[in-house]
Amino acid sequence: MSSVAAQEQRRATAAPARASAASKGPRLSRKHREWLAAGLFLAPDVLGLLVFVAIPMVLSIVLSFFQVSGFGSYEWIGLGNYRRMMDDPLFWDSMKITGLYVVVLVPVLFCVSLALGLLVKQKLPGMGIYRTALFLPYVISLVVVGVLWKFLLDEQTGAVNRAMRAAGFDGESWLGSPSLALGCVIAVMVWVMMGYYMIIFLAGLQEIPKEFYEAAKLDGAGPWTAFRTITWPLLRPTSFFVLLMSTVAAITGGLDLIFVLTNGGPANGTSLAIFYIYQQAFGFGEYGYASAMGSFLVLIMVLISAVIFKFTRGGRFDDGE
Where is the ABC transmembrane type-1 domain (predicted)? Predict the structure, then answer.
């Protein structure tokens, strides 16, 4: 009798608990909880991309079909801004300069960063200090970098020309010569960005197992053979990332450095497309025209990125077979 009474008591206590659980609704499965957690973690980043990238990009495309005055009036002109862009020789000159800038900057930056990554991977005394020193220019504002190098490259009082005169050479007008100014901008950008991509390459190099190099050494492979057969193939994903990001940065970045260092001169010799777009928008109030050129530049960037994806196969290890 006592056992029967105990069972009845347990059932009576369990009934309210089951009713309470049922009133709370069905519990989420583990998969749904993981999806919910992932969504919550991604929400701030997605919201930021929407607010600061996607929506402004769409608005810029819409704005490119209007003639915008400095007083805030909008007039629909359809493809008028794009037709104006096609007939604008200064815009196409800036595109040519941008093309030359990208073609020179990206390979030089890639090679220098890879070489530095290989160098700082070595276990030598004080290597941490060298890594920090090489990375430091990247964290400095480009405005500060522009002021610094404008002072160093000054024709009369710059440290570079003073050192050249002390060595018996004639000084150069580094920022005043159309044939030298763009090269100086490229050199400064390499100096600024090489530390960041050096760290990226260093991370990729440290992911390669040491056993591969030990086996190659036992087979009699020298440093060049080890690099060609082990390092370079296994760095494909990292190389793809560096190539893509440096190309995008070269096309869309450098505005503040150009503004401070050369202001697009001399004779528009350093007027990159991004700088010309900035001039039209904020110098002359041609917001609709600047939006049209910006949309065209984004299209070119997307096409170049697609070509990089195609020819590098996205940095995959396989041969695409």
Answer: 95-308
